[in-house]
Amino acid sequence: MATFFGEVLSAYSRAVEEDEDDLDENEEDEQIRRELEEKREVHLHWSPEVSESLRSGNKLQCSDFILAVGHNAASFLSAYVLSSSNWEPVGRASAWNERSRAVTGQNGEESACVFYRHKDDQSALICQVTAYIAEDQLFQWTEKVFDCLQHRRLIVTVLSDGSVADYKMADYLCSSSAPFMRSLHTSAFGDQPVCPSLEQPNIVTGLPAAVLNHCQVHHIAAIVYQCYSDVTGPDSVTMETYKPALTKLGRSIQLDPSPSTDILRKFARPTDIQSNLYI
Amino acid sequence: MFISSQDSAASFRDFTLIMPAVAVGNVGQLSVDLIVSTLNMRRVGYIHTDCLIPMAGNNPYTTCKEDAKELHTPAEVYATPGLKLAVLQIRAPVIQTKSKKFRQLLISWIKASGFSRTVVLSSSYAYQRDDQQLQGTSLRYLVTPSLLKMSADVLKELGWREMERVSAFPGLTDGNSEPRLVIPGGGFTKGLYTDSCTEDLPLAVLLLFCSEGDNIPDAFTLINHLNDWLHLLDSQEPNKWKIPTSWNLLFGSGIPPALF
Q: Which residue, A7, A185, A186, B67, is most buried by CB atoms nearer than 10 A?
């Protein structure tokens, strides 16, 4: 469409991308499309013990699945729960997409999505996701992970980072109230959330949403604690906001109520200066 | 695929299905929101699929504190058995590479459920109208041959304007360019319509030419147009549609006072 100044802008819609006509693809196009789809597949890599168990038809017998999505959520779990040496990694998920950093000689997504289990008590499974999972991979990730878990009396808790800029409310929120948490849970979740429920018209997207959709449809008790923060990087104040969310969980999730400054410093890195143009 | 949210399986035999297309201005989806909200329809199931971008939120049609904390997913089916009406609401964009798969999923669900007719509410870019389409009403309709057999008289009486076929290069009198159906900005509308013609499904498309912006008036225009045909609401007074709570703050939070 043309504007008043004579330049031609391509109009776009917030709702819909231009629908491609179903052109007859030649074989080469189809092959490229297939290969791309295969490359974008989500893969789960479990430890030998877990793989063996899954192969013989036994799902992971956990009753608490805690998923941390985002750097603050993941760092919170690292500092407050996983810093005790009783947790061991039992698997990881890899999902290649356009935002995966190509690190030569090393699988870039190795540390980006890891599953941990307590050495002595297998009732809790923790997963930290710091990688970007693309929109077309979210459903697959969720299906594959939940396929490995037993569903009876399973309670899923998701800790998710959010930006206060995405939070809508009628009265303008002054930044001193951030960070704060809001919860969203499935119909099967019977317990009392530790923070207010997410008000209309706010929604949850991404991996937490995919998990909630799956759990809602399959009658699994699940709750998402979305933490809205005004800081983009890992930050100790934001991490601490998640504390109440884990107080209701079983004995296996031993929360270290006040981790040492050294541990916190390790995870709350100051944000790297992107550019010094305006300093 | 369709998963019932109730203990007993829902039956949709001989029901009318109304569904939106994810299209420019989200007009179809806004109109469907008005139907569900006004008729106080109950959710009967989910369309659980990998074709839509995941999202989740609390009850968008909440009227009181008690029903506020109910989780809702990107594609849900609502029904009012008394009116033999079912409504599919789609709340998220269709993943681009999965558009065809989604259409196939819808077609097979519509067939399996035994809907007597399906109405798709959609929209198309206003700026891409040709000279002919610029004149008169901005509302159009399409029907599959199967539905035309049933509803020819009603449609004639309503005096609606059928969506025109446009030539690929307007103005050029080249014999090669056959006028064809295009619905720019309509998402899967055209695909769903052509697939339904092939599968001999009774399906109608109601669409509106519009642009992005505040599309609430467009939603009202479309829904009143549909009401002329289906008579979902008896009342004749103008502001009879109930706006759901999820329409609050469509354009963002309140303004910070420090801005001034």
A: A185
Q: Which residues of B touch A209 (CB under 8 A)?
A: 54-56
CB of A168 closer than 8 Å to CB of A198:
no
Average pLDDT for A119-123: 86
Q: Residue A202 carries which DSSP code?
A: -
* Coil, strand or helix at A166: helix
Nearest CA in chain A to B189: A19
ipTM for the complex shown: 0.92
Q: Which of A14, A208, A210 sits opposite B212 (nearest CB)?
A: A14
Of A206, A223, A228, A67, the residue nearest A161 (C-alpha): A228
Hey, which residues does A149 pair with through a beta bridge? A60
Residue B95 near chain A (CB below 8 Å): yes
> How many CA within 13 A on the CB side of residue A91?
22
User: What pLDDT was estimated at residue B8?
Assistant: 75
Assess B66–A contact: CB distance below 8 Å, yes or no.
Answer: no
Dihedral sign from CA coordinates of A104, A107, A113, A116: negative
* Percentage of the residues of chain B whose pLDDT score is greater than 70: 95
Q: What is the DSSP string of A106-159?
A: S-TTTTTEEEEEESS-TTEEEEEE-S---HHHHHHHHHHHHHTB--TT-EEEEE
Confidence tier at B66 by pLDDT (50, 70, 90)? confident
Q: Model pTM?
A: 0.91
Q: What angle do CA B114, A214, A72 make, to 5 degrees?
A: 150
Which residue of chain B is at minimal alpha-carbon distance from A203?
B57
Q: DSSP letter at A82?
A: I
